[in-house]
Amino acid sequence: MYLIYDDLYLKHQSGPSHPENAGRLEALMDALKVWKFQDSIGIVNPYPAGPDQIGMVHIPSYIEKIRRLSEEGGFHWLDPDTGLNRYTYESAAMAAGGIFKGLDLILGSDMGPGKFFAAVRPPGHHAFPGRGSGFCIFNNIALGAKYAQSKFKIKKIAIIDFDAHHGNGTQDIFYEDRTVFYISFHQYPHYPGTGTCYETGAGKGSGYNLNFPFAAHTGGPDYIAALTETVIPLMEKFKPGLIMVSAGYDSHYLDPLSSLELGEDSYYKISAILGALSNKHCQGKMAFVLEGGYNYRATADSILETLRGCLNFPYPEKFQGSEQLEEVLEITGGYDIRQIKNPFILKKNNEMAESFGV
Ligand SMILES: [Zn+2]
Predict the structure, then answer these.
(1) Can you list the positions of beta strands (E) in the chain?
(2) Beta bridge partners of 286
(3) Based on CB atoms within 10 Å of each CB, which residue in 6, 12, 63, 141 is the most buried?
(4) Are 233 and 242 contacting, i.e. CB atoms less than 8 angstroms apart?
């Protein structure tokens, strides 16, 4: 398993006293140094994405605007939440390039099965083709999906987003695209205001978008129920060639910006389940892309539990992975039905997913 990281990610600033700051990644790298499984992780430096590559998702005038404002120096606001400094273009290009580098490693080399976690900033899932918002500049995970499709001919990709906020940028980019299935778990109502059960895709992408708008104070059991009862059966039908995860840790119970209640154990279970699913359908290839997470310590510890969830269930060489997925679900997939906070949303999404013509 690889961790993609570069010190350039520390240089972008989202704003003065801003919750999205370099301390998030500094805490992770500090925690990694004393982690007892650190030898299982290979830390890899990325390369910057070029303007043409960023252009797979973003319009040229927006890319140029970010480059120009960064070059001017000083500090500029893109919206009331999202700012940039002189290093933002370089950091954001290196963040997108971080996903490309991870994909090169797991899809392009003959090193066999592999997973990576891209510990990048600025984050990406609120970035639209022509505008950044919600602390996001370029949509890293959408760029990664486009890169995997164009360079490595991956036909179908699932993006699973467990950041506390709805990934409105990512949903928008793939809303009419049936080759990328976007699934989001998020607090609702909450920023950015989108992400209802009724947003299920349009045109050719109709039935290829699914939102779980969870109430404040939702914890792990609802996520496990959604994964085991809806997402896994849906993905068994969709059969993605690659699973990508928008890994946002503002869904942690200690996060200052949101009110969801996942703990480190929840991220471990989610990671183990999705990892086993990728072992079954994607030859063990899976990409985690960091989004939010604003309690430094909780984010760092939760990322390490995400890594451990994958490391504990490596790609099974000798069989297709069906048995492993069953085993993982037996260990991690149980939940107490009395702790479920969103029974109607879970039921509705289950019925909708069954009706999708995937
Ligand atoms: Zn978020």
Answers:
(1) 2-4, 42-44, 76-79, 82-84, 115-118, 157-161, 180-187, 209-214, 242-247, 286-290
(2) 115, 243
(3) 141
(4) no
The count of other CB atoms within 10 Å of the CB of residue 149 is 19
**Rounded Cα gap, residues 40 and 29, in angstroms:** 15
Residues identified as active-site: 126
Q: Which residues of 226-261 are buried (b: 16+ CB within 10 A; e: fewer)?
A: bbbbbbbebbeebebbbbbbbbbbbbbbbbebbebb
Question: What is the whole-number distance in angstroms between the Cα of residue 230 and the centre of ligand 1?
Answer: 23
Say which residue the tokens 């891209």 belong to: 118
> Which token pair is 175?
């809303």
Q: What is the pLDDT of residue 144?
A: 99
Where the chain has pLDDT below 70, the residues are 110-112, 320
118 Cα: distance to centroid of ligand 1 (angstroms):
16
Q: Give me the pLDDT at residue 112, please.
A: 66
This prediction has a pTM of 0.98
94 C-alpha vs ligand 1 centroid, how far in Å? 20
pLDDT score recorded for residue 170:
99
DSSP annotation string for 258-308: ---BB-HHHHHHHHHHHHHHHHHHSTT-EEEEE----SHHHHHHHHHHHHH
pLDDT at 110: 67
What are the structural domains, with CATH classification, of the chain? 2-355 (3.40.800.20)
Residues 226 and 218: their CA atoms lie apart, in Å, by: 12
